[in-house]
Amino acid sequence: MKLHQVDGYIQSIYLVEYRYGLLLLDGCCRADIPILLKFISDNLNRPIKDLKLVVVTHMHPDHAGAAHRLRKMTGCKIAAANVQGQWYQGIDGVLMHWTDLLLANWVARRMKKPRQNLWYNAKLKPDFLLDDQEPLPGFPEWQALLTQGHTDRDLSLYHPNSGQVYIADLMVKVKGRYIPPFPIFYPKRYRQSINKIIALSPNRLLLAHGGEITPTTEDFQHLLEKAPTTPITHWRSVKTKFKRAFFAT
């Protein structure tokens, strides 16, 4: 196994190389498609149809945005968590999808990246639905771990032989410290997910935003201390800011 980390549009891309095929540990941004395909063809000197499986860890633009197009272009399969329904459902779902796209564009501007089209289908159509601790189809050395909290369908991907875990957005690096992501819809599940990762005693964590790290006890303790006890979501943030502005007048 060779694990390749590639700089994506606003997040790290993790591509696992085997002789028999390539595994993409997350669905990336739409803007990452040319970056990824160029890396496969130019750096790995392999045909793009060697991409066999893309795992979508959750439905945010930088984790699901490239999945459907990659399947169409390469013939790969898509795997996601075995959770009923779509993340972006109903009118609220439409509004949240647009908000998440705006947030992704805001992050890109903060990173001084050129503006790109990040639009993607809000409804995922996976080929495989994964349960907790289920081996990945075609790549049984890797296990799917249900690590909810950020959303209701977050996955982490565990490679027991090397002690590595790709945790997507379970934690993010800000000003040199590791903190919970925004949003957190399910605080109790989020804490359970952190403790699940701690129990694995991982040698290395692979972060979508923060690269590869070797976590310390202090890192995990700080993360748990910062973990919210009530949901922190788009709508709650807007309501809080509105109340502050209202009462300040």
UniProtKB/TrEMBL annotation:
Superkingdom of this protein's organism: Bacteria
Ranges annotated as spanning the membrane: none
SMART domains: Lactamase_B
Gene3D superfamilies: Ribonuclease Z/Hydroxyacylglutathione hydrolase-like
Organism in which the protein naturally occurs: Photobacterium pectinilyticum
InterPro entries in alphabetical order: Metallo-B-lactamas (IPR001279), NDM-1-like (IPR050855), RibonucZ/Hydroxyglut_hydro (IPR036866)
Record-annotated Metallo-beta-lactamase domain positions: 10-209
Name this polypeptide is given: MBL fold metallo-hydrolase
Family to which this protein belongs: Belongs to the metallo-beta-lactamase superfamily. Class-B beta-lactamase family.
Pfam families to which the protein is assigned, alphabetical: Lactamase_B
